[in-house]
Amino acid sequence: MGIIRDMQRVHATQAFADQRANTAAAQQRDLIRRNADHAIAAAQMAAGDADREREHQRLYVEAKTADTAAANAEIRARLSDLDGLLLSTLDVDDHIDLQLFKKPVEVPPFDPGPLGRPLPEPRWDSYVPPQPRGVGKILGGDRLRQQQEASAQRAFDDARARWTEAEQRRRRQLVVRQRAYDESLRKYEARITAYNAEVDRFAAAVAGADPSSVVEYFAMVLGNSVYPDDFPQHFRLAYLPKQRHLLIEYHLPPIEVVPQIKEYRYDRFRDDVTAVPRDESEVRRRYVEVIARLTLRTVHEVIEADRGGLVRQVSFNGIVDTIDRRTGRFVRPTLVSVQTDRETFAAIKLRRVDPVACVKHLEGALSPAPDELAAVPAKIDFDRDADRDFTEEFNVLAEIDERPNLVTLTEPAWEQQLADLFGVMGLEMGSATRTDLGARWQAADPRPVFGGQVVIFAVRGPASGSAAVHALAGAVTAAGATKGILVSLGGIDSEAYDAVAGRPLELIDGPALVTLLSNYCRVKARIERA
Protein backbone atom coordinates (compact mmCIF):
# COMPACT_ATOMS: atom_id res chain seq x y z
CA MET A 1 0.00 0.00 0.00
CA GLY A 2 2.78 2.42 0.88
CA ILE A 3 2.97 5.62 2.82
CA ILE A 4 1.14 7.71 0.22
CA ARG A 5 -1.88 5.42 0.17
CA ASP A 6 -1.86 5.52 3.97
CA MET A 7 -2.07 9.30 3.72
CA GLN A 8 -5.03 8.95 1.39
CA ARG A 9 -6.78 6.56 3.76
CA VAL A 10 -6.32 8.88 6.75
CA HIS A 11 -7.54 11.93 4.87
CA ALA A 12 -10.51 10.15 3.31
CA THR A 13 -11.51 8.57 6.60
CA GLN A 14 -11.59 12.00 8.20
CA ALA A 15 -13.79 13.28 5.39
CA PHE A 16 -16.20 10.37 5.65
CA ALA A 17 -16.46 10.89 9.41
CA ASP A 18 -17.78 14.41 8.68
CA GLN A 19 -21.25 13.40 7.49
CA ARG A 20 -24.26 15.53 6.73
CA ALA A 21 -25.74 15.25 10.25
CA ASN A 22 -26.30 19.00 10.59
CA THR A 23 -28.31 19.56 7.42
CA ALA A 24 -31.88 20.78 7.85
CA ALA A 25 -33.24 17.74 6.04
CA ALA A 26 -31.33 15.38 8.32
CA GLN A 27 -32.48 17.18 11.44
CA GLN A 28 -36.10 17.09 10.32
CA ARG A 29 -35.80 13.41 9.46
CA ASP A 30 -34.28 12.59 12.84
CA LEU A 31 -36.99 14.55 14.66
CA ILE A 32 -39.75 12.68 12.84
CA ARG A 33 -37.97 9.37 13.48
CA ARG A 34 -37.70 10.14 17.21
CA ASN A 35 -41.37 11.03 17.35
CA ALA A 36 -42.21 7.76 15.63
CA ASP A 37 -40.06 5.81 18.08
CA HIS A 38 -41.75 7.52 21.04
CA ALA A 39 -45.20 6.77 19.65
CA ILE A 40 -44.31 3.11 19.06
CA ALA A 41 -42.89 2.78 22.57
CA ALA A 42 -46.03 4.35 24.08
CA ALA A 43 -48.26 1.97 22.12
CA GLN A 44 -46.26 -1.04 23.27
CA MET A 45 -46.49 0.08 26.91
CA ALA A 46 -50.24 0.56 26.69
CA ALA A 47 -50.69 -2.82 24.99
CA GLY A 48 -49.90 -4.65 28.21
CA ASP A 49 -52.99 -3.34 30.00
CA ALA A 50 -56.27 -4.88 28.85
CA ASP A 51 -58.27 -2.01 30.40
CA ARG A 52 -56.46 0.46 28.19
CA GLU A 53 -57.21 -1.19 24.87
CA ARG A 54 -58.82 1.95 23.48
CA GLU A 55 -55.81 4.01 24.47
CA HIS A 56 -53.61 1.36 22.91
CA GLN A 57 -55.61 1.59 19.67
CA ARG A 58 -55.20 5.36 19.59
CA LEU A 59 -51.48 5.18 20.30
CA TYR A 60 -51.04 2.45 17.72
CA VAL A 61 -52.61 4.63 15.04
CA GLU A 62 -50.36 7.51 16.10
CA ALA A 63 -47.36 5.21 15.93
CA LYS A 64 -48.21 3.98 12.44
CA THR A 65 -48.89 7.55 11.30
CA ALA A 66 -45.59 8.74 12.76
CA ASP A 67 -43.74 5.79 11.25
CA THR A 68 -45.22 6.60 7.84
CA ALA A 69 -44.19 10.23 8.27
CA ALA A 70 -40.67 9.09 9.16
CA ALA A 71 -40.50 6.94 6.02
CA ASN A 72 -41.63 9.92 3.92
CA ALA A 73 -39.03 12.10 5.64
CA GLU A 74 -36.37 9.57 4.63
CA ILE A 75 -37.51 9.88 1.02
CA ARG A 76 -37.37 13.68 1.16
CA ALA A 77 -33.94 13.57 2.79
CA ARG A 78 -32.64 11.25 0.05
CA LEU A 79 -33.99 13.56 -2.67
CA SER A 80 -32.38 16.51 -0.90
CA ASP A 81 -29.04 14.67 -0.89
CA LEU A 82 -29.34 13.93 -4.61
CA ASP A 83 -30.37 17.49 -5.47
CA GLY A 84 -27.40 18.85 -3.51
CA LEU A 85 -24.72 16.63 -5.05
CA LEU A 86 -23.18 19.52 -6.99
CA LEU A 87 -23.87 22.49 -4.71
CA SER A 88 -22.58 20.69 -1.62
CA THR A 89 -19.06 20.52 -3.01
CA LEU A 90 -18.85 24.16 -4.05
CA ASP A 91 -18.40 25.29 -0.44
CA VAL A 92 -15.53 22.84 0.09
CA ASP A 93 -11.92 23.63 -0.77
CA ASP A 94 -10.87 20.49 -2.63
CA HIS A 95 -7.18 21.37 -2.67
CA ILE A 96 -5.08 19.16 -0.40
CA ASP A 97 -2.16 20.84 1.33
CA LEU A 98 0.26 17.95 1.55
CA GLN A 99 2.37 19.75 4.12
CA LEU A 100 -0.45 19.22 6.61
CA PHE A 101 0.33 15.52 6.51
CA LYS A 102 3.78 16.10 8.00
CA LYS A 103 4.13 15.01 11.59
CA PRO A 104 5.90 17.03 14.29
CA VAL A 105 8.47 15.34 16.47
CA GLU A 106 6.62 15.20 19.76
CA VAL A 107 9.00 13.64 22.26
CA PRO A 108 7.91 13.02 25.85
CA PRO A 109 10.67 13.92 28.32
CA PHE A 110 12.71 11.11 29.80
CA ASP A 111 10.92 9.82 32.88
CA PRO A 112 13.21 7.62 35.01
CA GLY A 113 10.46 7.07 37.56
CA PRO A 114 11.68 5.80 40.96
CA LEU A 115 15.09 5.06 39.40
CA GLY A 116 15.69 8.81 39.14
CA ARG A 117 15.54 9.31 42.88
CA PRO A 118 18.62 8.25 44.97
CA LEU A 119 17.84 5.90 47.80
CA PRO A 120 17.98 7.54 51.25
CA GLU A 121 21.45 6.98 52.71
CA PRO A 122 21.57 5.41 56.19
CA ARG A 123 22.53 7.93 58.90
CA TRP A 124 24.48 7.05 62.05
CA ASP A 125 22.19 9.34 64.06
CA SER A 126 19.42 6.81 63.48
CA TYR A 127 21.50 3.96 64.99
CA VAL A 128 23.48 5.57 67.85
CA PRO A 129 22.25 4.24 71.22
CA PRO A 130 21.04 6.67 73.91
CA GLN A 131 23.39 7.81 76.69
CA PRO A 132 22.85 5.95 80.02
CA ARG A 133 21.46 8.11 82.80
CA GLY A 134 20.88 7.96 86.52
CA VAL A 135 21.23 4.58 88.22
CA GLY A 136 22.03 2.88 84.91
CA LYS A 137 25.10 5.03 84.52
CA ILE A 138 26.31 4.11 88.05
CA LEU A 139 25.65 0.37 87.67
CA GLY A 140 27.99 -0.47 84.77
CA GLY A 141 26.52 1.90 82.31
CA ASP A 142 29.75 2.46 80.37
CA ARG A 143 30.21 -1.24 79.63
CA LEU A 144 26.59 -1.54 78.49
CA ARG A 145 26.95 1.49 76.30
CA GLN A 146 30.01 0.06 74.61
CA GLN A 147 28.07 -3.12 73.84
CA GLN A 148 25.16 -1.13 72.48
CA GLU A 149 27.43 1.03 70.35
CA ALA A 150 29.20 -2.03 68.94
CA SER A 151 25.83 -3.61 68.07
CA ALA A 152 24.61 -0.32 66.54
CA GLN A 153 27.81 0.01 64.52
CA ARG A 154 27.35 -3.48 63.06
CA ALA A 155 23.73 -2.69 62.15
CA PHE A 156 24.74 0.62 60.61
CA ASP A 157 27.59 -0.96 58.60
CA ASP A 158 25.21 -3.68 57.36
CA ALA A 159 22.56 -1.13 56.35
CA ARG A 160 25.13 1.01 54.59
CA ALA A 161 26.48 -2.00 52.69
CA ARG A 162 22.95 -2.89 51.55
CA TRP A 163 22.34 0.74 50.59
CA THR A 164 25.59 0.90 48.61
CA GLU A 165 24.65 -2.26 46.70
CA ALA A 166 21.08 -1.04 46.06
CA GLU A 167 22.29 2.38 44.95
CA GLN A 168 24.80 0.83 42.54
CA ARG A 169 21.99 -1.39 41.17
CA ARG A 170 19.69 1.64 40.77
CA ARG A 171 22.33 3.55 38.86
CA ARG A 172 22.95 0.59 36.56
CA GLN A 173 19.22 0.27 35.89
CA LEU A 174 18.98 4.02 35.32
CA VAL A 175 21.72 3.82 32.71
CA VAL A 176 19.91 0.93 31.00
CA ARG A 177 16.61 2.84 30.99
CA GLN A 178 18.30 5.98 29.67
CA ARG A 179 19.91 4.00 26.86
CA ALA A 180 16.57 2.37 26.01
CA TYR A 181 14.91 5.80 25.94
CA ASP A 182 17.67 7.22 23.74
CA GLU A 183 17.39 4.27 21.35
CA SER A 184 13.61 4.52 21.22
CA LEU A 185 13.90 8.27 20.64
CA ARG A 186 16.41 7.72 17.86
CA LYS A 187 14.14 5.22 16.10
CA TYR A 188 11.07 7.43 16.58
CA GLU A 189 12.83 10.50 15.19
CA ALA A 190 14.12 8.42 12.29
CA ARG A 191 10.58 7.22 11.48
CA ILE A 192 9.15 10.73 11.64
CA THR A 193 12.03 12.11 9.59
CA ALA A 194 11.57 9.38 6.97
CA TYR A 195 7.80 9.95 6.91
CA ASN A 196 8.16 13.71 6.51
CA ALA A 197 10.81 13.21 3.87
CA GLU A 198 8.40 10.96 1.98
CA VAL A 199 5.72 13.63 2.23
CA ASP A 200 8.19 16.19 0.87
CA ARG A 201 9.23 13.79 -1.87
CA PHE A 202 5.62 13.16 -2.83
CA ALA A 203 4.76 16.87 -2.77
CA ALA A 204 7.78 17.63 -4.96
CA ALA A 205 6.84 14.79 -7.33
CA VAL A 206 3.30 16.12 -7.65
CA ALA A 207 4.56 19.67 -8.24
CA GLY A 208 6.96 18.27 -10.83
CA ALA A 209 4.10 16.52 -12.67
CA ASP A 210 5.39 13.01 -12.02
CA PRO A 211 2.55 10.96 -13.59
CA SER A 212 2.17 8.31 -10.90
CA SER A 213 2.27 10.93 -8.14
CA VAL A 214 -0.26 13.11 -9.95
CA VAL A 215 -2.59 10.11 -10.19
CA GLU A 216 -2.15 9.43 -6.47
CA TYR A 217 -2.88 13.07 -5.61
CA PHE A 218 -6.11 13.27 -7.59
CA ALA A 219 -7.16 9.90 -6.20
CA MET A 220 -6.86 11.48 -2.75
CA VAL A 221 -8.96 14.42 -3.93
CA LEU A 222 -11.76 12.26 -5.31
CA GLY A 223 -11.52 9.89 -2.37
CA ASN A 224 -12.22 12.78 0.00
CA SER A 225 -15.51 13.59 -1.70
CA VAL A 226 -18.43 12.65 0.56
CA TYR A 227 -21.34 10.93 -1.18
CA PRO A 228 -24.44 9.10 0.07
CA ASP A 229 -23.67 5.71 1.55
CA ASP A 230 -24.73 3.64 -1.47
CA PHE A 231 -22.62 5.50 -4.05
CA PRO A 232 -19.70 3.29 -5.26
CA GLN A 233 -16.76 5.76 -5.29
CA HIS A 234 -14.85 3.42 -7.53
CA PHE A 235 -12.77 4.94 -10.33
CA ARG A 236 -9.73 4.67 -12.57
CA LEU A 237 -7.36 7.54 -13.27
CA ALA A 238 -4.67 8.08 -15.88
CA TYR A 239 -2.41 11.07 -16.47
CA LEU A 240 -0.76 11.99 -19.75
CA PRO A 241 2.00 14.43 -18.76
CA LYS A 242 2.86 15.78 -22.22
CA GLN A 243 -0.73 16.83 -22.87
CA ARG A 244 -1.39 17.57 -19.16
CA HIS A 245 -4.48 15.46 -19.66
CA LEU A 246 -6.27 13.66 -16.79
CA LEU A 247 -8.48 10.72 -17.78
CA ILE A 248 -11.22 9.59 -15.39
CA GLU A 249 -13.37 6.49 -15.60
CA TYR A 250 -15.95 6.76 -12.82
CA HIS A 251 -18.43 4.15 -11.63
CA LEU A 252 -21.86 5.77 -11.41
CA PRO A 253 -24.47 4.70 -8.88
CA PRO A 254 -27.33 2.60 -10.28
CA ILE A 255 -30.76 4.07 -10.95
CA GLU A 256 -31.98 2.57 -7.67
CA VAL A 257 -30.38 5.50 -5.79
CA VAL A 258 -33.44 7.49 -6.87
CA PRO A 259 -36.30 6.53 -4.54
CA GLN A 260 -38.73 4.38 -6.48
CA ILE A 261 -41.42 5.26 -3.93
CA LYS A 262 -42.98 8.72 -4.12
CA GLU A 263 -44.64 8.51 -0.72
CA TYR A 264 -46.20 6.17 1.83
CA ARG A 265 -49.83 6.55 2.87
CA TYR A 266 -51.36 5.03 5.97
CA ASP A 267 -55.04 4.03 5.96
CA ARG A 268 -56.10 3.87 9.62
CA PHE A 269 -59.34 2.05 8.85
CA ARG A 270 -57.65 -0.74 6.89
CA ASP A 271 -54.50 -0.58 9.01
CA ASP A 272 -52.51 -0.64 5.80
CA VAL A 273 -49.53 1.34 4.54
CA THR A 274 -49.63 1.89 0.79
CA ALA A 275 -46.51 2.68 -1.20
CA VAL A 276 -47.18 5.13 -4.01
CA PRO A 277 -44.62 4.46 -6.77
CA ARG A 278 -42.77 7.34 -8.35
CA ASP A 279 -43.57 7.95 -11.99
CA GLU A 280 -41.01 6.29 -14.29
CA SER A 281 -40.44 9.52 -16.22
CA GLU A 282 -39.60 11.34 -12.98
CA VAL A 283 -37.20 8.57 -11.91
CA ARG A 284 -35.49 8.79 -15.29
CA ARG A 285 -35.28 12.60 -15.12
CA ARG A 286 -33.87 12.58 -11.61
CA TYR A 287 -31.34 9.89 -12.48
CA VAL A 288 -30.12 11.86 -15.50
CA GLU A 289 -29.68 14.85 -13.19
CA VAL A 290 -27.74 12.73 -10.68
CA ILE A 291 -25.38 11.61 -13.44
CA ALA A 292 -24.91 15.17 -14.68
CA ARG A 293 -24.28 16.54 -11.18
CA LEU A 294 -21.77 13.82 -10.36
CA THR A 295 -19.94 14.48 -13.64
CA LEU A 296 -19.68 18.23 -13.06
CA ARG A 297 -18.78 17.70 -9.42
CA THR A 298 -15.90 15.37 -10.27
CA VAL A 299 -14.44 17.69 -12.91
CA HIS A 300 -14.86 20.67 -10.57
CA GLU A 301 -13.06 18.91 -7.71
CA VAL A 302 -10.13 18.03 -9.96
CA ILE A 303 -9.74 21.54 -11.32
CA GLU A 304 -10.21 23.27 -7.97
CA ALA A 305 -7.68 20.95 -6.31
CA ASP A 306 -5.12 21.63 -9.05
CA ARG A 307 -3.42 24.84 -7.96
CA GLY A 308 -0.22 23.95 -9.73
CA GLY A 309 -1.70 23.85 -13.23
CA LEU A 310 -1.03 20.14 -13.62
CA VAL A 311 -4.20 19.52 -15.62
CA ARG A 312 -5.04 21.39 -18.80
CA GLN A 313 -7.66 18.96 -20.03
CA VAL A 314 -10.06 16.54 -18.29
CA SER A 315 -11.85 13.59 -19.87
CA PHE A 316 -14.59 11.86 -17.92
CA ASN A 317 -16.40 8.62 -18.69
CA GLY A 318 -19.23 7.66 -16.33
CA ILE A 319 -20.02 3.96 -16.40
CA VAL A 320 -22.48 1.89 -14.37
CA ASP A 321 -22.13 -1.70 -13.22
CA THR A 322 -25.58 -3.20 -13.20
CA ILE A 323 -27.76 -6.03 -14.43
CA ASP A 324 -29.52 -5.78 -17.77
CA ARG A 325 -33.05 -6.79 -16.86
CA ARG A 326 -33.66 -7.93 -20.41
CA THR A 327 -30.87 -10.52 -20.33
CA GLY A 328 -30.06 -10.93 -16.64
CA ARG A 329 -26.38 -10.35 -17.41
CA PHE A 330 -23.99 -7.88 -15.80
CA VAL A 331 -23.28 -4.94 -18.13
CA ARG A 332 -21.14 -1.79 -17.95
CA PRO A 333 -22.52 0.86 -20.33
CA THR A 334 -21.12 4.39 -20.57
CA LEU A 335 -23.95 6.74 -19.61
CA VAL A 336 -22.06 10.04 -19.77
CA SER A 337 -18.85 11.22 -21.40
CA VAL A 338 -17.35 14.70 -21.26
CA GLN A 339 -14.09 16.22 -22.44
CA THR A 340 -13.29 19.78 -21.45
CA ASP A 341 -10.34 22.10 -20.99
CA ARG A 342 -9.51 23.94 -17.80
CA GLU A 343 -10.30 27.45 -19.01
CA THR A 344 -13.70 26.56 -20.43
CA PHE A 345 -14.83 24.76 -17.31
CA ALA A 346 -13.45 27.35 -14.89
CA ALA A 347 -15.54 30.04 -16.59
CA ILE A 348 -18.81 28.22 -15.75
CA LYS A 349 -20.80 29.48 -12.73
CA LEU A 350 -21.79 26.13 -11.32
CA ARG A 351 -24.12 27.55 -8.64
CA ARG A 352 -26.51 28.81 -11.30
CA VAL A 353 -26.39 26.12 -13.99
CA ASP A 354 -28.86 23.44 -14.94
CA PRO A 355 -26.57 20.40 -14.64
CA VAL A 356 -27.99 18.57 -17.67
CA ALA A 357 -27.83 21.68 -19.84
CA CYS A 358 -24.29 22.36 -18.61
CA VAL A 359 -23.07 18.90 -19.64
CA LYS A 360 -24.60 19.43 -23.07
CA HIS A 361 -23.00 22.89 -23.26
CA LEU A 362 -19.63 21.17 -22.77
CA GLU A 363 -20.56 19.02 -25.77
CA GLY A 364 -20.81 16.02 -23.48
CA ALA A 365 -22.73 12.89 -24.34
CA LEU A 366 -25.45 12.09 -21.79
CA SER A 367 -27.73 9.08 -22.04
CA PRO A 368 -31.35 10.14 -22.63
CA ALA A 369 -32.60 6.82 -21.24
CA PRO A 370 -30.19 5.59 -18.57
CA ASP A 371 -32.97 3.49 -17.06
CA GLU A 372 -32.81 1.42 -20.25
CA LEU A 373 -28.99 1.37 -20.07
CA ALA A 374 -28.76 3.28 -23.34
CA ALA A 375 -25.02 3.83 -23.79
CA VAL A 376 -23.47 6.94 -25.37
CA PRO A 377 -20.33 7.19 -27.53
CA ALA A 378 -17.38 7.73 -25.20
CA LYS A 379 -15.19 10.75 -25.79
CA ILE A 380 -12.20 8.58 -24.88
CA ASP A 381 -11.42 4.90 -24.95
CA PHE A 382 -9.85 4.69 -21.52
CA ASP A 383 -7.91 1.48 -22.10
CA ARG A 384 -6.63 2.65 -25.48
CA ASP A 385 -5.89 6.29 -24.66
CA ALA A 386 -4.45 5.84 -21.18
CA ASP A 387 -0.76 5.16 -20.75
CA ARG A 388 -0.85 1.93 -18.76
CA ASP A 389 2.31 2.86 -16.89
CA PHE A 390 0.55 5.82 -15.32
CA THR A 391 -2.90 4.32 -14.71
CA GLU A 392 -4.31 3.19 -11.39
CA GLU A 393 -7.67 1.94 -10.17
CA PHE A 394 -9.09 3.09 -6.86
CA ASN A 395 -12.02 1.78 -4.87
CA VAL A 396 -12.27 4.23 -1.99
CA LEU A 397 -14.99 2.46 -0.06
CA ALA A 398 -13.37 -0.94 -0.39
CA GLU A 399 -10.12 0.38 1.07
CA ILE A 400 -11.27 2.74 3.82
CA ASP A 401 -14.81 1.68 4.58
CA GLU A 402 -15.56 -0.92 7.20
CA ARG A 403 -19.29 -0.87 6.48
CA PRO A 404 -20.61 -4.30 5.49
CA ASN A 405 -21.26 -4.70 1.78
CA LEU A 406 -24.67 -6.38 1.63
CA VAL A 407 -23.88 -7.80 -1.81
CA THR A 408 -20.79 -9.75 -0.75
CA LEU A 409 -21.84 -10.90 2.72
CA THR A 410 -21.78 -14.65 3.17
CA GLU A 411 -25.20 -16.26 3.24
CA PRO A 412 -25.08 -16.85 7.03
CA ALA A 413 -23.98 -13.25 7.64
CA TRP A 414 -26.67 -11.89 5.27
CA GLU A 415 -29.37 -13.94 7.01
CA GLN A 416 -28.13 -12.93 10.47
CA GLN A 417 -28.11 -9.25 9.48
CA LEU A 418 -31.76 -9.41 8.43
CA ALA A 419 -32.76 -11.51 11.44
CA ASP A 420 -31.15 -8.93 13.73
CA LEU A 421 -32.91 -6.07 11.94
CA PHE A 422 -36.41 -7.52 12.10
CA GLY A 423 -35.76 -8.70 15.64
CA VAL A 424 -34.93 -5.13 16.71
CA MET A 425 -38.08 -3.96 14.90
CA GLY A 426 -40.15 -6.21 17.15
CA LEU A 427 -40.59 -9.48 15.28
CA GLU A 428 -39.84 -12.85 16.84
CA MET A 429 -37.73 -14.46 14.13
CA GLY A 430 -37.64 -18.16 13.42
CA SER A 431 -34.80 -19.97 11.69
CA ALA A 432 -34.01 -19.04 8.10
CA THR A 433 -34.60 -21.54 5.33
CA ARG A 434 -33.07 -21.25 1.89
CA THR A 435 -35.21 -21.55 -1.23
CA ASP A 436 -34.71 -20.93 -4.93
CA LEU A 437 -35.90 -17.36 -4.34
CA GLY A 438 -33.49 -16.72 -1.47
CA ALA A 439 -33.79 -16.75 2.31
CA ARG A 440 -37.18 -17.21 3.98
CA TRP A 441 -38.36 -16.73 7.56
CA GLN A 442 -41.54 -17.51 9.43
CA ALA A 443 -41.74 -14.78 12.07
CA ALA A 444 -44.27 -13.71 14.67
CA ASP A 445 -45.50 -10.22 15.49
CA PRO A 446 -46.26 -10.45 19.24
CA ARG A 447 -48.53 -7.40 19.43
CA PRO A 448 -52.07 -8.08 20.59
CA VAL A 449 -54.85 -7.45 18.07
CA PHE A 450 -52.52 -6.26 15.32
CA GLY A 451 -49.93 -9.03 15.52
CA GLY A 452 -49.78 -12.45 13.93
CA GLN A 453 -47.59 -14.59 11.73
CA VAL A 454 -45.32 -12.87 9.20
CA VAL A 455 -43.57 -14.43 6.19
CA ILE A 456 -40.33 -12.77 5.05
CA PHE A 457 -38.55 -13.35 1.74
CA ALA A 458 -35.07 -11.85 1.11
CA VAL A 459 -33.29 -11.97 -2.25
CA ARG A 460 -29.99 -10.49 -3.43
CA GLY A 461 -30.24 -11.08 -7.17
CA PRO A 462 -31.71 -8.86 -9.89
CA ALA A 463 -34.69 -6.58 -9.30
CA SER A 464 -37.80 -8.42 -8.15
CA GLY A 465 -40.93 -8.34 -10.29
CA SER A 466 -44.52 -9.42 -9.94
CA ALA A 467 -43.56 -13.12 -9.83
CA ALA A 468 -41.77 -12.61 -6.51
CA VAL A 469 -44.81 -10.76 -5.12
CA HIS A 470 -47.16 -13.55 -6.18
CA ALA A 471 -44.83 -16.15 -4.64
CA LEU A 472 -44.76 -14.21 -1.36
CA ALA A 473 -48.55 -13.81 -1.36
CA GLY A 474 -48.94 -17.55 -1.87
CA ALA A 475 -46.58 -18.28 1.01
CA VAL A 476 -48.50 -15.90 3.28
CA THR A 477 -51.77 -17.65 2.46
CA ALA A 478 -50.28 -21.13 2.90
CA ALA A 479 -48.83 -20.20 6.30
CA GLY A 480 -52.03 -18.53 7.50
CA ALA A 481 -49.97 -15.39 8.08
CA THR A 482 -51.29 -11.85 8.40
CA LYS A 483 -48.48 -10.15 6.56
CA GLY A 484 -45.61 -10.67 4.13
CA ILE A 485 -42.35 -8.77 3.62
CA LEU A 486 -40.17 -8.91 0.51
CA VAL A 487 -36.58 -7.62 0.76
CA SER A 488 -35.01 -7.26 -2.68
CA LEU A 489 -31.44 -5.96 -2.64
CA GLY A 490 -31.32 -5.56 -6.42
CA GLY A 491 -34.38 -3.30 -6.50
CA ILE A 492 -38.09 -3.69 -7.16
CA ASP A 493 -39.76 -3.34 -10.55
CA SER A 494 -42.81 -1.11 -10.89
CA GLU A 495 -44.87 -4.17 -11.83
CA ALA A 496 -44.13 -5.57 -8.38
CA TYR A 497 -45.78 -2.56 -6.74
CA ASP A 498 -48.79 -3.02 -9.02
CA ALA A 499 -49.00 -6.67 -7.96
CA VAL A 500 -49.22 -5.72 -4.27
CA ALA A 501 -52.64 -4.11 -4.93
CA GLY A 502 -54.15 -4.08 -1.47
CA ARG A 503 -52.46 -7.23 -0.25
CA PRO A 504 -50.90 -7.18 3.23
CA LEU A 505 -47.41 -7.10 1.76
CA GLU A 506 -44.49 -4.71 2.18
CA LEU A 507 -41.68 -4.30 -0.34
CA ILE A 508 -38.20 -3.16 0.74
CA ASP A 509 -35.55 -2.35 -1.86
CA GLY A 510 -31.79 -1.95 -1.33
CA PRO A 511 -31.68 1.75 -0.34
CA ALA A 512 -34.65 1.26 2.00
CA LEU A 513 -32.86 -1.68 3.64
CA VAL A 514 -29.72 0.43 4.14
CA THR A 515 -31.88 3.09 5.82
CA LEU A 516 -33.60 0.58 8.10
CA LEU A 517 -30.27 -0.92 9.19
CA SER A 518 -28.99 2.56 9.99
CA ASN A 519 -32.08 3.64 11.94
CA TYR A 520 -32.77 0.47 13.91
CA CYS A 521 -29.42 -1.32 14.21
CA ARG A 522 -27.01 1.63 13.85
CA VAL A 523 -25.33 -0.38 11.08
CA LYS A 524 -23.95 1.70 8.21
CA ALA A 525 -24.23 -0.80 5.37
CA ARG A 526 -23.52 -0.32 1.68
CA ILE A 527 -24.47 -1.90 -1.63
CA GLU A 528 -21.64 -2.31 -4.11
CA ARG A 529 -21.53 -4.90 -6.84
CA ALA A 530 -18.20 -6.14 -8.17
UniProtKB/TrEMBL annotation:
Residues 412-517 form the Restriction endonuclease type IV Mrr domain. Coiled coil: none annotated. The keyword Metal-binding does not apply. InterPro entries: Restrct_endonuc_IV_Mrr (IPR007560). GO terms for molecular function: endonuclease activity; hydrolase activity. Residues 109-121 have a biased composition (Pro residues). Its EC number is 3.1.21.-. Keywords: Endonuclease, Hydrolase, Nuclease. Pfam families: Mrr_cat. Residues 109-130 are annotated as: Disordered. This is Restriction endonuclease. It comes from Paractinoplanes aksuensis.
